[in-house]
Design a protein that fits this description.
This protein is of the alpha/beta class. The protein is built from eleven helices and eight strands. It has one domain: Rossmann fold (3-Layer(aba) Sandwich), CATH 3.40.50.
């Protein structure tokens, strides 16, 4: 009887585990909507030159998977792995380097760097991984004051900046294609949101100077044989536009892998609207807890 009870308990446990396995926290798809496993992602990322992990900024699953992928890439690439992120601006690179090398304490870095409100939960683990393993972490984004300047006055406003300021942004003049779908839709959505009002055409230009600057500093800090993994909002790399478009203008031979993050009510199959957004689509239940 005791043996029978033990077998019954084990069977119930196995059933419960099986039921739990049918409710995954995420699903990976390729661009065509085919289900992929995580090992495929690691293999393809390790073979790339540049990996873009496009996130939803408040997604705990995306942030967790960023760290897991970074760890697994490090297992294969070791010192040939470089990290970089939209969340850090180029004028904070010195602070970042000083923290990574131990020249300044964590309290000084966190007090003086321009950190996002979710830094400690979502980006600090990545920065500290780089620190613990002596990896570079590149601050790629344009200082926000210069993006704001473009928003107000257009690209021409950057011409009057000092040489030191220009070192913090993409080389001028910046190539710009207003017909790229990402920039066009941004303008259309903002105009629609204003109820028929008018949004300045400088809005997508401010986005473009961010994309161009991130592309510039990624390329500046990448060399053959390395994998550069870049963390950014998905809209900066979706549809192979944004940062990816600028990289391709400079080096069309780069092997680029893109990952995007999307929400769906159910994640067993990928909705048609999300196909071809990226090489890998990280699909997360819409009711997943957010970090903010």
């Amino acid at each position: 009887m005791k043996k029978f009870k033990l077998i019954s308990i084990v069977l119930v446990a196995l059933i419960l585990m099986s039921m739990k396995g049918d409710n995954p926290a995420y699903m990976l798809f390729d661009a065509n909507g085919k289900k992929m496993n995580y090992k495929n992602l690691v293999k393809d990322a390790a073979a790339a030159d540049i990996v873009f992990f496009g996130e939803q900024h408040n997604s705990p699953i995306a942030h967790w998977l960023q760290l897991e992928l970074t760890k697994d890439l490090f297992e294969q690439k070791q010192e040939n792995l470089v990290l970089g992120a939209e969340m850090f601006e180029t004028d904070n690179q010195l602070l970042m380097d000083e923290y990574l090398t131990g020249a300044i304490a964590v309290k000084n870095f966190e007090a003086e760097a321009k950190l996002w409100k979710n830094y400690k939960t979502d980006y600090k683990p990545l920065v500290d991984f780089a620190k613990d393993h002596q990896l570079e972490f590149i601050a790629t984004n344009i200082p926000r004051r210069y993006a704001s300047l473009v928003h107000k006055k257009g690209f021409e406003a950057l011409d009057s900046l000092s040489a030191d300021a220009k070192d913090l942004i993409a080389p001028l003049p910046v190539k710009y294609d207003p017909e790229l779908e990402g920039y066009k839709s941004m303008l259309e959505e903002m105009n629609d949101g204003m109820g028929g009002g008018h949004v300045t055409p400088n809005l997508p230009k401010a986005q473009a100077i961010k994309d161009a600057t991130m592309a510039h500093f990624i390329l500046k800090n990448w060399e053959q044989g390395n994998v550069f993994i870049h963390y950014n909002g998905a809209y900066h790399s979706n549809d192979y536009e944004g940062i990816v478009w600028y990289l391709k203008q400079k080096n069309p031979d780069l092997k680029i892998l893109t990952i995007t993050t999307i929400d769906q009510d159910t994640i067993n199959d990928l909705n048609d609207e999300f196909k071809n957004l990226a090489d890998y689509i990280l699909c997360i239940p819409a009711n997943m807890t957010k970090t903010y």
